[in-house]
């Protein structure tokens, strides 16, 4: 089924609704939910029409792979100025890697460049505000500034060569900032700066010790000079202790957290009287042998660059949570044993399967699991959040085995963690959808959770049940609470999986409202006075521009920036159509972009078409959406191929983002299998609906897309006639821990999953043309991945592969010459094989 897109919105119901019903979810939670009013029901695949093809000048490969400056340099890192009437954004200089900073009034289309000597005056995207919203604090180049929003006066609080960070207003109006692990408090009325807390990663000094050994005791007894020196030191130590205890002018702020530890997070209460600190044992991020040779250096030598360790070398870690009371100067460790499931053997079935393969029997037993703070991938907030009055704090934790997420508060009387919400997933907890916080001036939490099968928004009082504030077959993200608790704004793909708009819900009544209706990909930032939205909006054929709108239902947006070049607008680019490809393995369709040649006629017969399927990277990424893609070069390459008669398909295979928990976790312990099945459905759809010859289809992709190219060519060798794998993963045991262990567990626990999912184990299946493009200074997917696979192919006596190396390129290519060389090879491969 194809959904066309145009500027006017027309909701289109699916012809066969049952074909897109979503599968059930195995995620569980320990809360019961009551549903409040939701958005009006719309068909899951209702959609707007995509734009028509634009421009008249054919794109060339040289132009598509050129420095993207020719497209225009779009605004980035945009944020509101403190007055809520102007915005700040960066724009890259033409022909340079430097950025210029601009300020623009929202009622004007003209931006003013901020001079270098004024950069400290314009605030920051992570500025913080006092509780009465009259003061703003931020850092610039490691120094702290405070702006009075009533008078406009700007004060520089620090001017040091050290780096100050994380400004925070206390409830009494004082300002706190950090310098490393030292917290300083500033009385903004008097200007007095006080050291509030000094967290020391060392054992507490023992002070002067009495002689303990036989020889030492005899020395003090027999030698008067030694005994006198000891007494003098003892007197001096006692006097210093008395001065520190009785003289209030002296900072006495040290808290010793133990040698060999690192601080993962420290959050001060808004009253400045308590601190929650999370510690881990210090552990190197790499081993001595984790190096990557760089052959192209300034001095002609070989540089051994340090790189991270592999998941196969990772060791379990667990954290310690410490409550520090700054009033009575006590520090109390908080155990994880009050969290439900803290000692469950959640991998028992996996271990049984792996033991059985070795002829062994696994006996399950309970044991404390490694538990740490939630991984901060795109979280954009602290994983520890105090409520407004500082009486409660919430901490988001995750298990080392990736199967559980907890939101816990603290019972300060009993000195123990209290689980407010447990999200369990038999596969893994997503690293997205983990935002949470407190409603203002209350003890009610709000948070995102996938427990329904989709990321939805919930609220929960400390001693009550959770309530769903949103529900449906769509994903909620990027939540912002207003200061009067009247609304939580969020981004969601309600009308179609690939169309994102801004919505809001009243957390008291549960009433949801749609805010924007821009038909594309839209992100937002709420203004400081909460009256307006700064929107970052793009469409399939149009890069991101800035818009502004009133923060109200069904708002009208005004465009602020026009940065796309006339040269780009003149190019003839093919707008892909959004297709719902029926799946052979799930009730949910596989959404895909399809690029049609200009001479293509729906239902044509006689002439058969050749085709290419592009595999996006990152695994958990969405690319068949209505906005501008990070794969803009590929978009132009696909337009070029369409101009030459190819049908090009870009699939959001299973594991892609935007389609719910079950779609995300379909690859658990079997990476490459569901995706290859989806590619096969894509080829079948093109044969049935686009007149494609199944013997004239190629595939390519980079990173995860390169891995998928391998898996398709190795495990389904008749599906494609050729494939190009760019910066590809060949053995998941060599990839990083944070990503891989989610999906495949750890190699020491689940080697079956790694062998089932790694292309190097299936290389004997290759019988079609393969191109491997490998950057040599890639610190994400190591060059070694390609080297090991090439050796494997050589030993298997395969003759139909070739390798291109790129000596100066990292994972994301930088040089236009490298981009051009790479895509010339891909283009040539398809020309020769299809």
Automatic annotation (TrEMBL):
It comes from the Bacteria. This is Prolyl oligopeptidase family serine peptidase.
């Amino acid at each position: 089924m194809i959904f066309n897109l145009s500027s006017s919105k027309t909701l289109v119901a699916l012809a066969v609704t049952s074909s897109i019903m979503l599968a059930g979810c195995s995620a569980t939670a320990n809360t019961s939910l009551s549903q409040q009013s939701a958005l009006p029901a719309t068909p899951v695949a209702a959609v707007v029409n995509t734009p028509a093809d634009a421009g008249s000048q054919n794109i060339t490969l040289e132009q598509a792979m050129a420095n993207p400056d020719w497209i225009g340099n779009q605004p980035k890192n945009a944020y509101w100025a403190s007055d809520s009437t102007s915005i700040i954004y960066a724009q890259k200089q033409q022909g340079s890697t430097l950025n210029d900073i601009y300020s623009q009034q929202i009622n004007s289309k003209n931006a003013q460049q901020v001079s270098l000597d004024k950069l400290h005056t314009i605030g920051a995207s992570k500025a913080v505000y006092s509780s009465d919203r009259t003061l703003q604090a931020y850092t610039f180049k490691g120094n702290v500034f405070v702006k009075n929003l009533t008078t406009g006066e700007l004060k520089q609080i620090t001017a040091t060569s050290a780096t100050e960070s994380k400004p925070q207003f206390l409830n009494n109006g004082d300002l706190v900032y950090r310098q490393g692990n030292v917290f300083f408090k500033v009385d903004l009325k008097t200007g007095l700066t006080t050291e509030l807390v000094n967290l020391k990663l060392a054992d507490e000094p023992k002070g002067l010790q009495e002689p303990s050994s036989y020889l030492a005791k005899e020395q003090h007894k027999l030698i008067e000079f030694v005994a006198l020196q000891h007494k003098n030191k003892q007197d001096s130590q006692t006097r210093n202790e008395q001065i520190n205890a009785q003289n209030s002018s002296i900072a006495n702020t040290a808290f010793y957290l133990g040698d060999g530890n690192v601080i993962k997070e420290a959050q001060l209460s808004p009253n400045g009287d308590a601190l929650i600190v999370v510690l881990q044992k210090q552990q190197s991020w790499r081993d001595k042998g984790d190096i990557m040779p760089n052959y192209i250096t300034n001095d002609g030598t070989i540089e051994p660059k340090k790189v991270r360790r592999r998941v196969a070398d990772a060791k379990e870690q667990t954290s310690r949570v410490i409550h520090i009371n700054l009033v009575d100067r006590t520090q109390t460790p908080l155990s994880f044993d009050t969290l439900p499931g803290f000692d469950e053997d959640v991998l028992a079935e996996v271990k049984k399967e792996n033991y059985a393969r070795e002829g062994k029997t696994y006996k399950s037993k309970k044991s404390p699991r490694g538990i740490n703070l939630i991984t901060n991938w795109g979280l954009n907030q602290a994983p520890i959040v105090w409520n407004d009055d500082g009486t409660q704090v919430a901490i988001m934790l995750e298990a080392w085995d990736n199967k559980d997420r907890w939101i816990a508060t603290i019972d300060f009387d009993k000195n123990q963690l209290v689980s407010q919400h447990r999200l369990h997933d038999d596969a893994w907890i997503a690293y997205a959808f983990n935002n949470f916080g407190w409603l203002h001036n209350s003890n009610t939490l709000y948070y995102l959770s996938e427990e329904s099968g989709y990321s939805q928004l919930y609220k929960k009082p400390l001693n009550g049940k959770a309530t769903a504030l949103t529900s449906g077959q769509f994903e909620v993200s990027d939540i912002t609470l207003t200061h009067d608790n009247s609304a939580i704004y969020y981004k969601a793909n309600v009308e179609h999986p690939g169309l994102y708009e801004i919505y809001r819900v009243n957390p008291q009544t549960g009433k949801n409202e749609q805010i924007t209706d821009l038909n594309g990909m839209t992100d937002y930032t709420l203004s400081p006075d909460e009256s307006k939205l700064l929107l970052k909006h793009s469409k399939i054929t149009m890069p991101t521009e800035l818009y502004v709108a009133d923060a109200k239902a069904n708002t009208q947006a005004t465009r602020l920036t026009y940065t796309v070049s006339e040269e780009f607008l003149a190019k003839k680019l093919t707008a892909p159509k959004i297709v719902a490809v029926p799946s052979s393995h799930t009730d949910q369709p596989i959404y895909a972009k399809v690029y049609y040649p200009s001479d293509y006629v729906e239902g044509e017969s006689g002439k058969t078409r050749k085709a290419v399927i592009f595999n996006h990277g990152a695994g958990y990424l969405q690319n068949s959406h209505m906005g501008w893609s990070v794969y803009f070069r590929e978009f132009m390459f696909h337009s070029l191929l369409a101009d030459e008669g190819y049908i090009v398909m870009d699939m959001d295979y299973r594991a892609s983002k935007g389609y719910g928990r079950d779609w995300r976790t379909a690859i658990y312990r079997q990476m490459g299998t569901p995706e290859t099945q989806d590619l096969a459905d894509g080829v079948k759809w093109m044969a049935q609906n686009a007149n494609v010859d199944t013997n004239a289809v190629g595939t390519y992709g980079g990173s995860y897309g390169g891995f998928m190219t391998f898996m398709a060519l190795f495990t389904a060798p008749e599906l494609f006639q050729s494939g190009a794998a760019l910066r590809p993963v060949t053995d998941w045991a060599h990839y990083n821990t944070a990503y891989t262990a989610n999906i495949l567990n750890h190699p020491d626990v689940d080697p079956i999953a790694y062998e089932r999912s790694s292309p190097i184990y299936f290389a004997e299946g290759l019988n079609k043309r393969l191109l491997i493009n490998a950057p040599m200074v890639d610190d994400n997917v190591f060059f070694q991945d390609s080297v090991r696979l090439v050796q494997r192919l050589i030993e298997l006596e395969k003759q139909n592969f070739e390798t291109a190396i790129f000596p100066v390129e990292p994972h994301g290519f930088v040089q236009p010459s490298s981009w051009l060389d790479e895509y010339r090879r891909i283009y040539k491969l398809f020309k020769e094989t299809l």
